[in-house]
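Reopening this ticket.

The earlier resolution said the output was attached, but the attachment link was broken on my side. Pasting everything inline this time so it's all in one place.
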Amino acid sequence: MKRRGLLLVTILLAACTTATAGKKTAIRRTHEQLQPQARGSSCDVYRGSWVVDASYPLYDAASCPFVRKEFDCRRMGRPDSTYLKYRWQPDPPCSLPRFDGVKLLNLWRGKKVMFVGDSLVVNQYESLLCMLHAAAPGARTNQSWASSSGENPSTTVRFEDYGVTLVYYLSHYLVDLTNDTAGRTVLRLDGMDEGRAWIGADVLVFGSWRWWWRKSWDYIQGDSTVVQDMDRTQAFTKGLQTWARWVDANLAQTSTKVFFQGYSPNHLDGRQWGAAAGKTCIGETQPLNNAAAYHGQPNPQDTIVRSVLAGMAKPVLLLDITSMSQLRKDGHTTRYNGDSLGRDCTHWCVAGVPDTWNTVLYAALAGGDS
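Inline output:
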């Protein structure tokens, strides 16, 4: 799949024809500040390959108090360890800075970082917690959970010595999922009441897609209509547009940095990498060598997200993790997730692939001089 650069957010300049040249320059500079600062000019850090690095993994999940058993493949009995040794190497002349957790904690000192989305966002959140914990193992931490009536569950970890708070907020759809007076579950494509919980964060990482294909509602409400169901791609588009309007209305004039987690591929169809029909990620222990070895079709989420982000006033950086993750058929939890069925080719082992997603996030935030 062709990648067209790091920052996949553009301003609709046609809607801003009355803006001064100085204001336009300021907007462009804001976008530049959000780009992953990989070493090398004209870089696309999302083009590359996985290489063995003896210094990997960046941490031992057994020493991380924040990773759940569903993601801790080694704890759940995965016998091989080669999948832990791969580092993402962008094509020359690019390179990613090595993750420096202490530098990131200092950069975030006194700040609040929120991850908002589904369990694939949890994958990235818990990976980052482990990376930070390994970098500052002596730092005092405090973990808490919240789940009150009318509000979505959340998890909070605070690195006390740095005053850094990292929160995961459960939101499968990034729009409201509520109950009506009759007790029926309603997906409100135009509802953003839950967004009140996100105000005040200094960094926001959003992600949503998988749950749109699960019917966890009785009705869908939007545009003054109520239906039992609708085309899920259309529903996702409407929901994401509502989210984008909320971001622009509430964050465009703030210093909050906003990211969107790109499509995280599953590996349920071996034909995507040249294997026989019926083959899945089960038993896979090696990544694909390069992008040409992956034959899967583009996911519709990718085009929708790019289009919505391109029309926003607030700069939002797309963490374009799709291509690099497509190569990692070996990185899923499979049967090593505490589930007796053991067929998970969607979620990722921690330590593992999500560590690279966070290295890209780190590059965007901390620059390439570490």
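Reporter confirms the inline version is readable. The CA atoms of residues 57 and 84 lie 5 Å apart. DSSP finds seven helices and 15 strands in the chain.
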